[in-house]
């Protein structure tokens, strides 16, 4: 121990000096909150926390912003790039437009994890992947340890590393999902602990599990990747984001009285132009965006100053931004400074370094709306068919653009007990006129990468490279069969069904270069179930039938056929016959004695 | 048998009528009800994981796109079927050529059956002559019994690949009774290559071949004869495996995906047999033990039958087919239809059978209620798995009673042959 500290002391001193010089040069922690009121009286809150650690200090296990727990796991599992997502709910693209961060910071429902692991071959990469999932499972209190070989895939074209990796690394991409995982407060707490201010100060002080997991949609992400500047200096970047869409009305409900109650009749907002409108008939109007709200009402808390580690002074960077038209009034806590941006919709706030910050928006009718980005592609995936024996998958891709076709990669992983018949893959194209026509799948699907499932070993992996023409909807369908499992393989709630992981769509956007990601919702698959109460009965009944057949046949085979006369004659000479006659003789003797005594 | 030319001609005419009618019936069913083949293909009673046409198509799809069909959990059938079906036009867009191919295979099977019947081996072999040898159906009737059996028709329309195993077995037997033991072994090799279990028929088949051979001049020693034919069978299987290896390129991959699948029964899709529900409900630690027990049980009949019926090897084959129809891991109604096709060869035993009514009722009852109970379980949700399981128990019981009854009748027939004065007397077994 002494020798160790003696040797390491100068090293630590060196690193400390190095590190402090870096800190002075550029504080490497940034945090940012974007608030976008959305239609239907929703509010999108995007939190982003980003920090850098130089590659050298990372390699020397010298962590400052990067959490040590996570850094050591990455080093132990030779993980060069990591993406972890916790998502619940559904992003309603029809009313909310395109996704925050172009979908690159969200995952499918449940937990999604993908990582680039440096390993000499596939087997070692998988072993390291298992190490990684086991460790992350402990760190994030999630069931990531259930990401086994059946839930792990190796996507070929759907994901590309965000970071800059050195050529010498033999990187293996592994991807796993847990669509059935319920993301909740126990995942938020470790997530907050990774932040330098740990939810005590700065925008992270807004996080409240009650509100976060009450959101209509929420996504937490952790991304770690090496980022290199052109001159060869590399940093390990960790970026954590939380995106959530809160229903303003729902969030404003007081915590002491959280039960939703019907709106009183006189407060209903009705469409009076409807012919049937009367005292007892109401056609509700769409929710408007002129609602009054404040941070305290929506999040239940105020922002507790700024995180001292985040650089604010002098850089012109603000940590809180709100996207509402400039004409709308916004009240902020004293001491904070409001900066309106030129686009007419964005205003950002410089917070006072201590003291709480709140902003509130009064009810105000505004004619101008913040324009929403139209999503590039609408995608929807459903299971069709009835019965527990077989079914079909239907995937619909709608291209809203009138001009350009959209090219994308469709990636799905299916559990092994769902057996797709890929030869039944069919495509139907529907134009704006509503006329649909069948066409061979090869016209829409440019490339296919398919890896079929093996029972109890691995799941199906399907990657399709597709192109949907302008102003049309393409529907892909294929049949599948549902396997019946051994009764020990069913979960306790077998009749609820099994979760099928969401499909991932990567849109190759040549203009913006950065890919856009979409994810479908997860699916619930009903499997045929045996009777769980019957193992003994089944073993007994089947064995009985087998014993009956075996017994009858071999009984017939081993015995001789004789006529009735012979049978009675034989009876006297066989062992059984002889024993019987002895028994009769003994009985007779006893009876004889008994009569004598009498 | 002495047949006059005119009667032979009427036989031939009847044969043409029966075969033609069978073909037309299948064609009509396919054309009038275009959805019927796909419906039957989806039925668990007809299609099992090892003979399903839909799985074959999936395997074919992967095979034609240079993906190994065995590197997946769907295709578990023999590799040689792939190039064979790759030659046929796509069954989805033009179903008729494939369907007609299956019809022809069915007719060929019936023809083999006709040859077996005409040889008269079932009533009069080298060491045994049935007492009631004149109570019999002619070959055309036996073929008609096979061709118009609804189970056979359903199997044929569902394009199950068990049809080829059936051909292998029937051609092996028809070649054996025709005295062509080499072809018999090759055909058995083909059947074994396709579905593994026909290997168990080797001993009775070689005895049958020997019976025919021994009727000719200079019969060889039986030991040497068996060894020679075993070598022949192994060579034919090895040849087919070699060809398959050329096709797939990976020997162990396809061996474990086909024969390993037959042996270890990992896919527990419901079927008419006894294995699936048993192994669903079996405790994990006993799974391997009971797999061994079930296979041993299946193989045990070979010894018993062969020893007891050494004088009637064709009957051994028939009763073994009955055993397979009940106790093999993935049975379907095609296995039952093969047993029911061989049974009419033993028309002379029918008067000696005691529980025909009970057995036939049980089989009819279960074949009608089976689909209904399956529907209740899987689609209506008003029943559970036990409904269908109970019906498979009744089905298995029905066939095994029929089998046991036939075995009893055959033994009694042997006894009557030895004691001609006791014909028709009441008997007991001691």
TrEMBL record, chain A:
Residues 1-25 form the signal peptide. One of its GO terms (cellular component) is GPI-anchor transamidase complex. Keywords: Membrane, Signal, Transmembrane, Transmembrane helix. GO terms for biological process: attachment of GPI anchor to protein. It holds the Pfam family Gpi16. It comes from the Eukaryota. The chain crosses the membrane at residues 536-558. InterPro entries: PIG-T (IPR007245). This is Gpi16 subunit, GPI transamidase component. It comes from Penicillium salamii. The lineage of its organism: Eukaryota, Fungi, Dikarya, Ascomycota, Pezizomycotina.
Automatic annotation (TrEMBL), chain B:
It is a multi-pass membrane protein. The chain crosses the membrane at residues 16-36, 135-154, 190-210, 222-252, 289-307, 313-331, 352-374, 386-411. It comes from the Eukaryota. GO terms for biological process: attachment of GPI anchor to protein; GPI anchor biosynthetic process. The keyword Endoplasmic reticulum applies. It is found in: Endoplasmic reticulum membrane. Keywords: Endoplasmic reticulum, GPI-anchor biosynthesis, Membrane, Transmembrane, Transmembrane helix. GO terms for cellular component: GPI-anchor transamidase complex. The keyword Transmembrane applies. Its main location: endoplasmic reticulum. InterPro entries: PIG-U (IPR009600). Pathway: Glycolipid biosynthesis; glycosylphosphatidylinositol-anchor biosynthesis. PANTHER family: GPI TRANSAMIDASE COMPONENT PIG-U, PHOSPHATIDYLINOSITOL GLYCAN ANCHOR BIOSYNTHESIS CLASS U PROTEIN. Belongs to the PIGU family. This is GPI transamidase subunit PIG-U.
